[in-house]
């Protein structure tokens, strides 16, 4: 069983090695408290995303930077959630909250730069040094992604939802994630991402399959649920990733992927700002 969140947060900040492998979702779901508290209302965040994010997931950073009050209020509201409140939520509500916090803080990190930087990688320490109030702690974006979402939950689809403000990231939704719709939203995010040139390229004429570099960086996150030792191609991580991807393509494309008779590559990652 994973360590309590309070212990994990302390461990993350102190750079202590993470706890043992998290339990699968099906095992942990029965452990959620029956007295779960009311999830956060994301109405203001929803309005902000509708205003500044395009249907394709690009962001009007110039307009957002010119009107910073709404984003600052959203980030402050997310940052004010206490650890005790969070611990009373369902697993889905916790995951939705952490994704929303990551994406909102990323938006804030971009517009805090004046002038806007061409890439988030031009902001020193944006992932591992800049700290933000979350759950009563001062956490980095890396803490949220790697020490909480990836280590506390067995849900690899979060990689389709976390948006690091780059063109090759999955598209930013025009709505916040919510616990009651999380499964549908994550499936939709995965579909949109893999339907895009940034997620998957399948070229039967050239016998080549290319997938997002995100799968290269975090491929182990898919192994628990999608291991496929006798199908697909590549390392165990790559076979698991391709098995996952097969759920979001046509039946004929899934059969082609499962046969494994192609060259597997990774798409170049475009770190340019995902701006309108």
Short descriptors:
mainly alpha, 13 helices, 2 domains, 3-stranded mixed sheet, 5 strands, two-stranded antiparallel sheet, 276 residues
Task: Please explain how this structure is put together.
By secondary structure, the protein is mostly helical. The chain folds into 2 domains: 187 residues, no CATH class; 67 residues, no CATH class. It contains 13 helices and 5 strands. The strands form 2 sheets. The chain has a 3-stranded mixed β-sheet. It has a two-stranded antiparallel sheet with strand order 1-2. A hairpin with a 4-residue loop joins strand 3 and strand 4. Helix 1 packs across helix 8 and helix 7 packs antiparallel against helix 8. It is globular and about 55 Å long. The relative contact order is 0.14.
Q: What's the pLDDT, averaged over the residues?
A: 90
Fraction of helical residues = 40-55%
- Low-confidence region ranges: 10-35
Q: What Rg, in angstroms, do the CA atoms define?
A: 19 Å
Terminal CA distance: 43 Å
Structural class assignment? mainly alpha
* Sheet with most strands: strand arrangement: 3-4-5
Total tally of structural domains: 2
Strand content: 5-15%
**Structural shape:** globular
Q: Major beta sheet, specifics?
A: 3 strands, mixed
Helices and strands, in order, run as: HHHHHHHEEHHEEHHHHE
Q: Outline of this structure?
A:
The protein is mainly alpha-helical. The chain is built from 13 helices and five strands.
Write the layout of secondary structure elements.
Layout: H1 5-13, H2 25-28, H3 43-52, H4 61-66, H5 69-79, H6 83-87, H7 91-111, E1 132-134, E2 137-139, H8 141-152, H9 182-195, E3 200-203, E4 208-211, H10 213-218, H11 223-226, H12 236-245, H13 251-259, E5 263-266
Parallel strand pairs: 4-5
Antiparallel strand pairs: 1-2, 3-4
Helix pairs in contact: 1-8, 5-7, 7-8
